[in-house]
TrEMBL record:
One of its GO terms (molecular function) is ATP binding. This is Phosphoribosylformylglycinamidine cyclo-ligase. It catalyses: 2-formamido-N(1)-(5-O-phospho-beta-D-ribosyl)acetamidine + ATP = 5-amino-1-(5-phospho-beta-D-ribosyl)imidazole + ADP + phosphate + H(+). Its main location: cytoplasm. Belongs to the AIR synthase family. It is found in: Cytoplasm.
Amino acid sequence: MSDLYKKAGVDIDAGSQAVQLMKEAVRATYTPNVLSDVGNFGGLFSLADLSGMAHPVLVASMDGVGTKTKVAARANRWDTIGQDLVNHCINDILVQGARPLFFLDYVASDKLQPAQIAAIVNGMAAACSAAGCALLGGETAEMPGVYATGEVDVVGTIVGVVDKDSVIDGQRISAGDAIIAIPSSGLHTNGFTLARAVLEDFDWAAVQPNLGVPLEDALLAVHRCYLREVMALQRSVDVCGLAHITGGGVVDNLPRILPSGLGAQIRWDAWDVPALFKLIEEHGDVDALEMARVFNMGLGMLVIVPAGDAQTALDLVPDAFVVGEIIPGEGVQLV
């Protein structure tokens, strides 16, 4: 058989090898709801166990990890960005009260390297397993001429479920409510284009004195998943609103959940901004407002609860802290 397709840039055998390397990790995420197997044309997921919900609503979201893939490439470490992707997507549907059911992935590059692709997908599988979410299927694409040499793109879709009466939509938020922050683990999956530009000339493998770890370790810190903490809060306090702090930072993300006529006041002195953000700000001469719109600044998830529930919430999530309150008005005030 001729190998013209391979000579043109697409190696079918490499794709098959990648699937073999990730197959067991993917199967390990399967719950009893999964009715299909790796390699099927479509993933089958039973909704039979949703009978306990009066009005089950599916919640779906799609995202990527942006140019964090460039950091992974420079460090030649591929075991974390798959975890980043899954956790980011879980958090995005979590803010509406949904728990994850299954995840679908898309991994593409100019040239398939089976071990690299398997490391990425195995990371996704690890994050899915930790959240009780099935990695139901995906696509591995080799696209020379579309992606530049050495480039990798990673995208995912998540589907979750919430009972209609339990949807968190922010409509019950009122003036005086407390804003509680659960810390981020780092940059998460946003702001890497600016971070890479500012830190380009650093030795990423060297330990940075203010960070205590190599710069590449700090940049590749896995995006934190807030499923466990939010579920614990929902059982004990009145969670009126949730905001996942991604691209746009607190300034752009918090207003997305606020009812008309309400704003928020965030106190900068309520927490210590992590050293990595300070390094970017100081070395890049980035002004404070731009930092607050590009990065999460150490605030990964904001939880809005009545002021009377704030202490209970803090007791349930030991590393959380109050960063502000809901006020009459519009937008976010940084004070």
